[in-house]
């Protein structure tokens, strides 16, 4: 499912306009992104937690030349599903 399909489905189920639903979805994504940039966790009880994780530097290989390269440390976004989501997907 892509964003447009999500907006359409929520609009049909809630009776809200697609424009209103899209505004809410965009706002939700912006708020989660902003919180992660500040190093905060965003938790939806039962659904899951959005957080950032530190990835340490490591040595990799260039697949074309086989040459070793250094991959620098980085911060990456992560999602940890909640118990209710895990049970619903089983």
TrEMBL record:
Keywords: DNA condensation, DNA-binding. The keyword Isomerase does not apply. It holds the Pfam family Bac_DNA_binding. One of its GO terms (biological process) is chromosome condensation. The keyword DNA-binding applies. Residues 53-90 are annotated as: Disordered. Coiled coil: none annotated. GO terms for molecular function: DNA binding; identical protein binding; structural constituent of chromatin. PANTHER family: DNA-BINDING PROTEIN HU (PTHR33175), DNA-BINDING PROTEIN HU-BETA (PTHR33175:SF3). This is DNA-binding protein HU (DNA-binding protein II).
């Amino acid at each position: 499912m892509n964003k447009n399909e999500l907006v359409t489905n929520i609009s049909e189920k809630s009776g809200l306009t697609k424009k209103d639903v899209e505004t809410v979805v965009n706002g939700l994504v912006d708020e989660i992104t902003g919180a992660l940039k500040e190093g905060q966790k965003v938790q939806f009880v039962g659904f899951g937690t959005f957080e950032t994780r530190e990835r340490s530097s490591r040595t990799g290989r260039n697949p074309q030349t086989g040459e070793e390269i250094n991959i620098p440390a980085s911060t990456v976004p992560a999602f940890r599903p909640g118990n209710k989501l895990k049970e619903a997907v089983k």
